[in-house]
Structures are given as C-alpha cells and as structure tokens.
Write a structure and sequence with these properties.
binds ligand LXAUTJHC; 6-phosphogluconolactonase activity; 6-phosphogluconolactonase_DevB; 6-phosphogluconolactonase; 28% helix; hydrolase; alpha/beta; NagB/RpiA_transferase-like; disordered C terminus
C-alpha cells in the first residue's frame, strides 16, 4: 500500500510549530488510547524536538490535553553514544523537558544504550534492535510506531543519518554511527527501514538555516544527499515548518496550511 502524500504545515514562527506539533502529538496519543491501544511514540532530539516536549508538558498542565501515561511507550529515533548522564543525551533532554514530569512506568521508556552501558555503538545498536523486536508483534521486528518524530539538521541529516555517508541505506532496524559531522561523533540511529515502518512520520524543522535543505527534501533530492527527504510514514508524512524554514518551499501539489487551524 503506498503512503499518503507528504503534507506540509507552515506556521509563522518556531514557537507556533512547537505548540502545534505538541498539541497534535497529544491528540494522536489520546486517539490511540481511546481505541484501547497503548500508543508507541518515537522521540527525537534537536532544538524543536525537545522544545515541543516542553510545550506538551505545558499543555498537559492545563485542561487542553490529557493522556494515560501507563498506556504510552516511548522510543528514540537516535541517540548520542556518550555517558547516560551527559547533557548531550537526547534521552536526558527529553526527560527534563517532559518525561520526568509524567508518571510513565520506567519499563515503558526505552532509551538507546549509552557508552557506560555498552562498549561500542554497534553493541548498543544491536541491543536496541533486540529490544524493539521484544516489543514487536509475533514475527515482526518492530512495534507499531503510531507517531515517529524527526528533526532535520541544516545539512539535511535526520535522526543520525548524515548526508554523504550511505547511512540512509543501512540494513536492519538500527545502526551505529561514527565520525558524525555534528558532535558527538558516536551515535546510534534507527535506520530508514525502521523509520518508514511508522504509521505517521512528522518532521519538524525551523529557522532560515534549514530552508535550503527543506526545499531540496521536498523537491525529492537523492536520499544520501538529503536524508531528511527520504522518510515516508505508512499512513502519513507531515512536515512542520515555520515561514523561515519553508522559504520558497511548499511546492505545488503538496498540501500546505498557513493558517492556524488544527489539521492534526
Ligand atoms: O543531532 C541531532 O540533530 C538533529 C537536528 O537537530 P536540530 O537542533 O538542528 O533541530 C536531531 O533531529 C537529532 O535527533 C539529533 O540527534
């Protein structure tokens, strides 16, 4: 079955993007839980990825949103292979922004391995693949990810799949990453195969420095040149952009929203 077309949501500012994506994420978790299922969400690091978690925390403190933390499982799309308590850890940043403020059972929070837990990024990547499989339906490699969040670097990388490295073609569901052009050098990432198994993939990118790669991603650049252009969710792929990162993008034929309606 082919995925729906890519949807592009363009909002005035990065603050709007963060708030809109946070509200949409909480709404999707609630929808899944209302169906009687446990929601599986894949988190991302990066500026907007962490900011939207802080906005989700603020929304949950109001009556505007609610969720059942016991029926939520959290995963990561990529992680820095450094000590677990390092400020560089996507996990640590996510915990500080949101997770430490929810009563999510520790067994439902699936962090990628750190350098004090594993000798090499390869071992951490293999262990994460095994963990994913242990939570997957019988005979499958991955849980059903309801929403998988991604960011994009100014160089066009997403998760820790960097351009010009061939990592976007990595096999399996996880990969070790070395010599990352953006520090820290050693990382663990989901592969494109794992990313594209998600029901919905949402990519948030804001700021003028991202505009050139957003334009190339949306124009269908080669995956190894602009990895962020490659992900496709099974049901939906949605870009959240501010006007600065959208630049002249939002090409004809794509669904573009510039108003403030919640199209989640
Ligand atoms: O290193 C990383 O960078 C990307 C993008 O980060 P940003 O700060 O430019 O938004 C992020 O998506 C990824 O998770 C992270 O490990």
């Amino acid at each position: 079955m082919s995925a729906d077309p890519v949807t592009t949501v363009v909002l005035p500012t990065a603050e709007d993007v963060s708030r809109r994506a946070a509200a949409a994420l909480l709404a999707e978790i609630e929808r899944v839980q209302d169906e009687g299922r446990t929601a599986h969400v894949v988190l991302t690091g990066g500026t907007i990825g962490i900011r939207l978690l802080a906005d989700a925390r603020r929304l949950l403190a109001t009556d505007a949103a609610s969720l059942d933390p016991t029926r939520l499982e959290l995963w990561w799309g990529d992680e820095r292979f450094v000590p677990r308590d390092s400020e560089d850890r996507n996990e640590r940043q996510a915990r500080e922004a949101l997770l430490d403020h929810l009563s999510i059972p520790e067994a439902n929070t699936h962090h990628m391995g750190s350098s004090d837990e594993f000798g090499t990024a390869e071992e951490a990547a293999d262990a994460y693949a095994a963990l994913l499989q242990s939570r997957a339906p019988e005979g499958e490699d991955l849980p059903r990810f309801d929403v998988l969040l991604l960011g994009m670097g100014p160089d066009g990388h997403t998760a820790s799949l960097f351009p010009g490295t061939g990592l976007v073609f990595a096999e399996g569901v996880t990969t070790a990453v070395h010599n990352s052009p953006k520090p820290p050098a050693d990382r663990v990432s989901l592969t494109l195969t794992a990313i594209n198994a998600a029901e919905e993939v949402w990519i948030a990118a804001t700021g003028p420095e991202k505009a050139p790669m957003v334009a190339r991603a949306l124009a269908g650049a080669a995956p190894d040149e602009v990895p962020a252009g490659a992900p496709r969710g099974r049901r939906a792929t949605r870009w959240y952009l501010d006007s600065a990162s959208a630049g002249a993008a939002a090409p004809a034929g794509q669904s573009v929203s510039q108003d403030d309606d919640d199209d989640a």
